[in-house]
Amino acid sequence: MTEIVPGVHAIDLGTVYAYLYHERDHLTLIDTGYADHAARVLQEIETIGRRPQDLEQIVVTHSHADHRGALAELVDRTGAQVLVHALDAPVVRGEVPQPLPVLSDLEREPFEQIMAGFVEPPPGPVDRELEDGDEIDLDGRAQAVHVPGHTAGSIAVYLPGRRLLFSGDAAVAGPQGRLMVGVFNVDTQQARASFRKLAALDFEVACFGHGKPLDREASLAFRRLAEKLGR
Question: Is residue 182 part of a domain?
Answer without folding.
Answer: yes
